[in-house]
TrEMBL record:
Superkingdom classification of source: Eukaryota
Protein name (record): Rhamnogalacturonase A/B/Epimerase-like pectate lyase domain-containing protein
GO molecular function, one term: polygalacturonase activity
Signal peptide: 1-24
GO BP annotation list: carbohydrate metabolic process
Similarity remark: Belongs to the glycosyl hydrolase 28 family.
InterPro entries in alphabetical order: GH28_Enzymes, Glyco_hydro_28, PbH1, Pectin_lyas_fold, Pectin_lyase_fold/virulence, RHGA/B-epi-like_pectate_lyase
Keyword terms: Glycosidase, Hydrolase, Signal
Record domain Rhamnogalacturonase A/B/Epimerase-like pectate lyase: where: 33-78
Cited Pfam families: Glyco_hydro_28, Pect-lyase_RHGA_epim
């Protein structure tokens, strides 16, 4: 066993991306520009946008530095635009409050952020304080099942029911640094990287309303060479979410994080038009989430060279209006629409994983989008029911077959070419598993080939 663990650890280290360049690691210039010196009131009722932006612009003109929001203070603002080499420092005891009016944000929906850095180098956010999106103001009807939210779609600037401002965004930027900050109550997505390179997100605490949809924790969209470390994410929707809309996602490492969500803790997609390559998720704790590790590949992009290692999780049912059915591991690829391309998922390893879950592992490729070369090594899966939600369903959403009635087993397999299982235990709390097939493996033989099993155990616990 020791040899196996050492070999697994070595393979994990091989996928670690190189450290960010010196420009990203070096401290920001020491010069400090306090927003109080530019007229900020910090009383939470008057808008301090002009004062904050003036401090940012002065800092940028001076070659960079830190823009300080001193404590105590609640600084209400419309969109603040960061500049290159400017770090926004929200002091402990200070809060930056996002405005709750549509006119507080630019005309273009893609720029609806409380804090926005666009085409910057070396911009960042830190300080130990809080950025608060005042998400409660966007709730139309509170519900423990799922909140009904306002949508700013009347003017046509945004369409659909997800027209709300995000909290913190970096677009087309390099050497992004977000650390030692609390991001609280986003109305929509919380921390969003779009086409960024060399980003470090460290020691960030994210708290979203657990009943609010679409308040993702960290969305890494078309961005590369990203490190996420030592983060605490407790939110309603997906927690760490790589997406590929206009370009690939590669060299992403997430480590030493704690996650709770009503949706998926780590989810690839569902925007998946381009490839995902060389991603590592290590030393993650997932608590009472609707899904643990997930891939929703729906738009023809491919996934390869991914490691999930040293992960402990507990997954449970929530109301089916939330995507997910308590799967600890959910790896799927299928066309979003009948004319969509089918992507493949290959060379994915699950190493040193333990879970307590209300549903089984779900591994489902599609006819022209196979799952290839998956490996489970040193994995302990415990199956137990403790909520009263209905089981016996597989959730293919979005698109595909949607919700499908099915027997429930330890692993459901379809459209796979190459699956290696090495030292995997399934533990069954039989007294709580009414309606389960209690079968380690459920699959249609015609869709599976290249199976390899070594030391697969199925054990009764009760």
């Amino acid at each position: 066993m020791a040899v196996l663990l050492l070999a697994a650890a070595a393979s994990v280290l091989l996928l670690l991306p190189p450290p960010p360049p010196a420009a990203a690691r070096s401290a920001a210039p020491a010069r400090v520009f306090s927003v109080a010196d530019y007229g900020a009131a910090g009383d939470g009722s008057r808008y301090d946008t002009a004062a904050i932006q003036a401090a940012v612009d002065a800092c940028a003109a001076a070659g960079g530095g830190r823009v300080l929001l001193p404590a105590p203070g609640d600084y209400l603002t419309a969109t603040v635009r960061l500049r290159s080499r400017v770090v926004l420092e929200v002091a402990p005891g200070a809060r930056l409050l996002g405005g709750t009016r549509q006119r507080d944000y630019p005309p273009e929906f893609r720029r609806w952020y409380v804090v926005l850095a666009e085409n910057t180098t070396g911009a960042g956010v830190t300080g130990g304080g809080e950025i608060n999106g005042q998400g409660g103001a966007f709730v139309v009807t509170p519900s423990a099942q799922k909140n009904v939210m306002v949508s700013w779609n009347a003017t046509g600037d945004c369409l659909g029911d997800e027209c709300r401002p995000r909290l913190l965004g970096f677009i087309d930027s390099k050497d992004v640094a977000v650390h030692d900050i609390t991001l609280n109550q986003p109305a929509y997505w919380c921390l969003h990287l779009v086409r960024c390179d060399n980003s470090v997100i460290r020691n960030v605490s994210i708290y979203g309303d657990f009943d609010t949809p679409n308040n993702d924790g960290i969305d890494i969209e078309d961005s590369n060479n990203t490190i996420i470390a030592d983060c605490h994410i407790d939110t309603g929707d997906d927690a760490i979410c790589p997406k590929s809309s206009t370009g690939p996602v590669y060299n992403l490492t997430a480590t030493n994080c704690w996650i709770r969500t009503k949706s998926c803790a780590i989810k690839f997609g569902s925007a998946s038009f381009f490839n995902f390559e060389k991603l590592l998720f290590d030393n993650i704790t997932i608590a009472d989430s609707h899904r643990g590790l997930g891939m929703q590949i729906r738009n023809g992009g491919n996934v390869s060279d991914v490691i999930f290692s040293n992960i402990k999780m507990r997954t449970r049912y929530y109301h089916p209006s939330w995507w997910g059915r308590a799967e600890p591991i959910y790896i799927t690829t299928c066309p979003r629409h009948p004319d969509s391309k089918e992507g493949t998922i290959s060379d994915v390893r699950f190493i040193n994983i333990s879970s307590i879950s209300e549903n089984g592992v779900f591994l489902a490729g599609s006819k022209h989008g196979l799952l290839r070369n998956l490996k489970f090594q040193n994995v302990d899966l415990t199956y137990k029911r403790w909520t009263n939600y209905t089981g016996g369903l597989y959730d293919y959403r979005p698109g595909c077959q949607k919700m499908v009635k099915h027997k429930t087993g330890g692993m459901m397999l379809e459209h796979i070419s190459g699956l290696e299982v090495d030292n995997v235990s399934m533990r069954w709390w039989r007294g709580s598993l009414k309606g389960w097939d209690v079968n380690p493996l459920l699959f249609r033989p015609s869709t599976i080939d290249g199976l390899s099993f070594h030391d697969l155990q199925s054990l009764d616990v009760q």
